[in-house]
Structures are given as C-alpha cells and as structure tokens.
Design brief:
Pfam families: PepSY_TM. This protein is mainly α. 63% of the residues lie in helices and 0% in strands. The chain contains four helices and no strands.
Length: 90
C-alpha cells in the first residue's frame, strides 16, 4: 500500500472537489447561456411570428390624426395614452 504526502492529498482533494463542483454548476451555466441566447433573439422571433399583427397594408382614405385620436378616446374600456405621427405610409 502506498501513502501520499499531505501536499499530494490536498491536491487530490482539490482536483476531486473541482470536478464535482463543475459537474454540479455546469448545467446551470449551460442553461443560463441557452436562455440568454434565446433572449437576445427575441426581437427577431417576434417580428417573424407576429408580422401580421405588427404591419398592415394601408387601404382606404387617410384620416387626420385628430380624428383618429377622437375615435380612440371613444372606447370607454381603454385609456388613450399618446399618439405619434407615422414616418411614412404603412
């Protein structure tokens, strides 16, 4: 039977501890990286999934902004917050 020096015993303990801590913490780091990547891609995914709700074809006659605001304020269930002019058609 061989015995190791106290310094070698500490080294073995630290290596084993490092291994098991890595096995325990590794999946959490992987999950954080995966969800972070998905979070970064969210705007592109939303644009692709909700294109029909975010963009529309302009049809019909143009209405003045004041008239659009008046119609929006008639809805008693919603509170009108603000309006801004469109930068272009569509």
């Amino acid at each position: 039977m061989t015995t190791c020096t106290p310094r070698a015993a500490w080294g073995n303990l630290l290596r084993r501890l490092h291994f098991y801590v890595g096995l325990f913490v590794g999946p959490f780091i992987f999950f954080a990286a995966l969800t972070g990547t998905l979070y970064v891609a969210t705007p592109q995914l939303e644009n692709a999934l909700y294109r029909h709700a975010l963009h529309t074809d302009s049809v019909g006659e143009l209405q003045p902004l004041a008239e659009q605001i008046a119609v929006a304020e008639k809805n008693r269930w919603l509170r009108f917050a603000f309006a801004r002019r469109a930068s272009g058609a569509g």
